[in-house]
Automatic annotation (TrEMBL):
It comes from the Eukaryota. This is DNA-directed RNA polymerase subunit beta. Residues 1-28 are annotated as: Disordered. Keywords: Membrane, Transmembrane, Transmembrane helix. The chain crosses the membrane at residues 46-65.
């Protein structure tokens, strides 16, 4: 499964059979046809009538084009327009990534195979599936962006076994099932999802082995040799592990490497200064990465921008929140959080730096899911676009947003974006 995920980051290749030469000859052919037409027009004395007809065509096309624009704008709601102005999106310009988007460097500079076009095609397919979800209000669980991300990645990888750590009422189990209808799932979660059925909607999967309730075992304590044997898995690189258990992601990475798993998805990849566990985004937030490393000076450019943005975005953090004692900005105010913020440890910058070097030494691929759509379309108010990569459906593309069926979803389902990340790892 994995081989097809990867592609090297390199310039557009020139094929061995001389594609470039082919393109050049095509251009040459166009020039000679144009030259021949011009020669004919001049020779026959039809130059002025042709120019006049050309001018009329340009005027008519331009009129039709602008009228269509007016129709599109009036079709989108006035609410949509006022929101654009509210966030300062004059001229539909948004500010995704304006404060930098830290990312983890990989061993060989490889990235994923899929493109934005694949993601848009995926969205078209996933929206009607999402509408059939059994748990409509999944508060404290995944919203639309990450549900789509998990479904898309899983379907692309086509694993032989899916492992999930942290199921809550079972929404993510249901998403995995939609991606792979016949593949076995192993779910590790302290409270069995069936317990939630008594109070309301929940999802219990028939083709899933639950380590839950009295049978619960933490991912780090599972005898994976025994479990893989029981499920007939010979090659652990054919397994996908999904973590949504709010544990220190460095700890989970080490446990996954030890067990020999290579494909990992982490749901909550919290930004620096936020969240209840140490994340990859936090670990790779280093001075040598764009948007990485921070100064605790309130009056710095970053300090002033953050203070302004905090007024608009609920999850944005200003310098006061970012910095702890001794100007410690890494992790969350110098803390490496774990287990839903129940267990924290202060770490030095040197330790934080060492952690990022370790992560980089085992990473083959690091891919953060972009937000599904810009906030002027989704009306989300939580995550700050300044710390996120450009969305799949960019602000201003209301036609596409509507065509994909996204305009029919409630705004609240877009509020849970926390940079879900897909990692491919190996230890050499
Ligand atoms: C945010 S919820 C998961 C949401 C779920 N994936 C969804 O999409 O709806 C976190 C879950 O992790 C569970 N959890 C807590 N500690 C855990 C651990 N050590 N291992 C696995 N799950 C754990 C919690 O009981 C809770 O069900």
């Amino acid at each position: 499964m994995l081989e097809r995920v990867l592609s090297s980051r390199r310039a557009t290749p020139v094929s061995d059979d001389g594609d470039e030469a082919g393109d050049e000859s095509k251009t040459r052919k166009h020039i000679s046809v144009a030259t021949r037409v011009t020669n004919y027009v001049i020779r026959t004395g039809h130059l002025w009538p042709c120019l006049l007809i050309g001018l009329v065509i340009v005027l008519v096309t331009s009129f039709v084009y602008h009228t269509r624009d007016l129709v599109c704008i009036s079709a989108s709601s006035s609410d949509h327009l006022s929101r654009l102005r509210f966030f300062g999106f004059e001229g539909l310009e948004t500010d995704f990534g304006s404060l930098g988007v830290p990312w983890c460097r990989t061993k060989h500079d490889r990235t994923v195979e899929w493109t934005t076009k694949d993601l848009i095609k995926g969205l078209e397919e996933f929206v009607p599936i999402y509408e059939t979800r059994p748990i409509k209000n999944n508060m404290y669980g995944m919203g639309f962006d990450h549900s789509f991300g998990l479904w898309f990645i899983t379907r692309w990888l086509k694993p032989e076994l899916m492992i999930e750590s942290g199921a809550f009422k079972g929404h993510s189990t249901w998403v995995l099932r939609q991606a792979m209808p016949d593949t076995r799932i192993i779910s590790l979660t302290p409270r069995h999802p069936e317990k939630y059925l008594k109070k309301g909607p929940a999802y219990v999967d028939e083709n899933c082995t639950y380590f839950a309730g009295k049978d619960f075992v933490d991912f780090g304590n599972v005898d994976w040799g025994k479990v893989m044997k029981k499920h007939g898995i010979k090659d652990r690189s054919q397994v996908l592990v999904f973590f949504d258990d709010h544990q220190n992601e460095l700890k989970r990475l080490k446990q996954a490497l030890k067990a020999g798993f290579r494909h990992l998805v982490f749901e909550d990849n919290y930004d620096t200064g936020t969240g209840d566990h140490y994340s990859f985004r936090q670990m790779c937030d280093q001075f040598y990465i764009r948007g990485g490393g921070h100064s605790c000076i309130k009056d710095s450019d970053e300090g002033r921008i953050r203070a302004r943005r905090k007024k608009f975005w609920e999850k944005a953090v200003d310098i006061d929140e970012l910095c702890g004692p001794g100007e410690a900005w890494w992790g969350v105010r110098g803390q490496m959080r774990d287990d839903f913020n129940h267990s924290n440890k202060a770490i030095s910058y040197a330790e934080h730096f060492k952690n990022s070097r370790f992560v980089e030494s085992v990473l083959d691929v690091y891919w953060e899911l972009p937000p599904v759509a810009g906030p002027s379309l989704t009306h989300q108010t939580r995550y700050d676009p300044a710390r996120a990569s450009s969305p799949i459906v960019e602000d201003g593309r209301y036609g596409l947003f509507r065509r994909l069926g996204l305009s029919g979803l409630e705004a609240s389902v877009f509020n849970g974006y926390t940079q879900m990340v897909y990692l491919q790892v190996s230890q050499e």
